[in-house]
TrEMBL record:
Coiled-coil portions: none
Protein source organism: Marinobacter zhanjiangensis
Keyword vocabulary terms for this entry: Ethylene biosynthesis, Iron, Metal-binding, Oxidoreductase
Annotated EC: 1.13.12.19, 1.14.20.7
Protein name (database record): 2-oxoglutarate-dependent ethylene/succinate-forming enzyme
Pfam families cross-referenced by the UniProt entry: 2OG-FeII_Oxy, DIOX_N
PROSITE patterns membership: FE2OG_OXY
Subunit record text: Monomer.
Broadest EC class assigned to this enzyme: oxidoreductase
Reactions accelerated catalytically: 2-oxoglutarate + O2 + 2 H(+) = ethene + 3 CO2 + H2O; L-arginine + 2-oxoglutarate + O2 = guanidine + L-glutamate 5-semialdehyde + succinate + CO2
């Protein structure tokens, strides 16, 4: 594998079950062999995607004190602003040279689950920019819909009922994460200095990037291959939760971001499933010994996030 497959999702929206199955099989092959693929014909208009990059540029251009007022350190629910060098995606390496802003599934402050302080069900933080919240949530909703479509493909490929994942995706844990990598000015001390080598935690990640290079993926032969910007496409990858759920049928693949030559923006949408969904390999692979114990999505994700951030106590719930 020296480049990532590009898959048209048009077939998943067909009325013809054979066409849906053919696309699902193509997706499934990528998930088994590579764990990374581009999607085209994904249904998100380019103008919507470009609009999200405008929002990211506006946000990161705010004065430092405005961004600090939105700090993720004030959110027990993984929302808000992560300052430069505040995160280590690879805990064994140095800090990541990037800043980020997380938006989660949007809950009102008086929602019963928010009042009960349930894990991952918190309020979002919003920058003081007119119309920003509405436009960001519009992009979030487009990504969620795409994520649900991709999961229909996974179900068909895995030989499950086509709506197997739909019930787990009614109000899922999902994070829209805007990222800004500063220019490296020719100084690259670590090849993964932008984002440390890691696998993603959830089910699937849907990533949009600008035209500046940086993302690299480790193939099965142990070689780093570039994942260049493909105009109009998203890069998708399998996360550890779906790898676990599928008893390692689908693979989550290590990747990193090399410090970019020029300032680089990307927008990731990390999709998990509903917080209380039980991730149990026995529901997906029949007749195979399960390699993992059942665990709720919220417990699994909390454990992974606690290992990534210093500001989260090791036993923090969400
Ligand atoms: O910015 C990118 O291209 C990838 C970022 C990434 O892998 C992540 O945030 O998990
Ligand atoms: Fe990642």
């Amino acid at each position: 594998m020296s480049s990532l497959p590009i898959i048209s999702l048009a077939g998943l929206r067909s009325d013809d079950p054979a066409e849906r199955q053919a696309t699902a099989t193509e997706l499934g092959r990528a998930c088994r062999d590579v764990g990374f693929f581009y999607v085209i014909d994904h249904g998100i208009p380019d103008s919507v995607c470009q609009g999200a990059f405008d929002l990211a540029r506006q946000l990161f251009a705010l004065p430092a004190e405005d961004k600090e007022a939105l700090s993720i350190k004030r959110s027990p629910h993984n929302r808000g602003y992560v300052a430069m060098a505040d995160e280590k995606l690879n805990p064994d390496a140095g800090a990541d040279m990037k800043e980020a802003f997380n938006i989660g599934t949007d809950f009102p402050a008086d929602h019963p689950d928010v009042l009960a302080d349930k894990p991952f069900r918190g309020v979002n933080f919003w920058p003081p920019i007119d119309g920003w919240r509405r436009r960001a949530l519009d992009y979030f909703d487009h990504c969620l819909e795409l994520g649900r479509t991709i999961h229909r493909g996974f179900s068909l490929d895995l030989g499950l009922a086509e709506d197997f994942f739909a019930g787990h995706l009614s109000k899922p844990i999902a994070t829209l994460r805007m990222l800004r990598y500063p220019p490296s000015a020719g100084k690259v001390e670590r090849e993964d200095g932008g984002a440390g080598t890691h696998t993603d935690y959830g089910n699937v990640t849907i990533l949009a990037s600008d035209a500046v290079a940086g993302l690299e993926v480790l193939n099965r032969q142990g070689e780093w291959i570039k994942a260049p910007h493909v105009p109009g496409a998203f890069v998708c990858n399998i996360g550890d939760c779906l790898m676990r759920w599928s008893n390692d049928t689908y693979l989550s693949t290590p990747h990193r971001v090399r410090p970019p030559a020029k300032e680089r923006y990307s927008i990731a949408f990390f999709l998990e499933v509903n917080p209380d969904s039980v991730v149990d390999p026995r529901d997906i692979v029949k007749g195979e010994a399960p390699k993992y114990e059942p665990i709720t999505c919220a417990d699994y994700l909390a454990a992974r996030l606690n290992a990534t951030y210093d500001h989260r106590g090791a036993d923090e719930k969400a």
